[in-house]
Every structure is written in C-alpha cells, then in structure tokens.
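Our preliminary data section would be incomplete without showing what the modeling component actually yields. Below, a chain of 223 amino acids is followed by its predicted structure, encoded as tokens that our downstream tools consume directly.
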Amino acid sequence: MELRPDNVAEWDPALFDKQDPSPDYLFYAQVRKVVHLDQEAIRALTGLYRELLPAGGAILDLMSSWRSHLPPDMIFSRVCGLGMNKEELADNPQLTDYFIQDLNAKPTLPFKDGEFDAACCAVSVQYLQKPVQVFREVLRVLKPGGVFVVSFSNRCFPTKAVQVWLETSDEEHLQLVALYFAASGGWSRITMRDCSAPCARLFQCDPLYAVWATADRRMSSDR
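Predicted structure:
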C-alpha cells in the first residue's frame, strides 16, 4: 500500500512492527553510553544545529540520551531531554531537565502548548511506531515558527527499528520522514538534506541525513 499524507488511517500497522515486540523499556533499561555517529557525522550534526536552532531558545531534545551534540558555544534558555534511560539523561551535560517516557507506549508529550522554540530528534526516528502522532505532538508544543530537526544515519538497532525503515534505503528514509511531517499537518517548508561529509561517499565515515520543517504560524494559532 502506498503511504500518502491523505491516507494515514489506512496505513498498514504491520509496517510499524518490530522484530523484537517486547516492551521498549526492557531494551533501553541497559545503559549504553556510546555515540551512534562517528566524529565526522557528529560535526555535521552540530553544524546543522548551529544553522537551524535559535540561540537563547528553549529546545526539546526528543528521544534523548547522554549526548545531544548541540553547539557547545551556543547558549539556550532550556534544553529539555525526553528519553528512556534515566542514567543516560542524567549524564547529559547539555540538558537542563529531562523526562522519562516511552513514546511508542504513550505518544503524547508532557508539555504545554507552545512551550518550546525548537525541537530535535537525533538518530532515533527509526524506532517510532506512531510517528504521525508524535510529530503532531511536537507541533503542538512548539511556538509558531519553531523548527523541528530530525536527523539519522545508516545505523540502527535492527530489532527495534520499524519494518518500513528496514525495508527502505537511506534516500527513501529522507522521503519517509518528510512524509511524517506532511501527514501530521501544520508544518511548512519541509526540507530534506544529505548533510554527509565527503568521506561518507567513499564509505570512510558515517553519512548524515536530516529533514526539518517549521511549525506553521497559521496552523499553530488555530489550535
């Protein structure tokens, strides 16, 4: 079945199944203080954040862990992490506060409307089983004009990635995440970019891809 923004209710739920159907909290209870990108990709991600995130703003780091890769010289009024492992989040020096939540079990966010100036989700979108619901929630908690930056590479925990992710290529992942934005409504200027360093083309470093969009002022003010 073709996935389109206008037929979300008809999307096959099996596309968002996982090889490991056990509750995610069991998998993420293990502390993993490792980075999931190499240094070239991390530099590219930090550079993208420098370009897109507002200095002095309140930032939501969705599906966060022990490192956020935000520019170390940028000051934000708040960096709130939402993730699955308390020890990892507590060890993240860039977070001002954090929440523990499994978005696959509960896709609603514990924040007020318009609480954040921007949001980011690094190398984790492939695990979302209810991506449209989560993207709608991010829209809700962003101020009008706020940007949501979703980045990913070619790595994942395959037993926890959704089936549609495993069945598609890196280029198709860009289109899939853009589809999540379009299907959740209320976003403008949906942008896809291959942010990979030149060494990625020679398979010498990790690729980095990103999709971002802006919370539409008209849609946000109508909520």
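The helical segments are 24-28, 39-52, 86-90, 131-141, 163-166, 170-184, 198-201, 217-221. The mean pLDDT is 91. Preliminary results of this kind motivate Aim 1 of the renewal.
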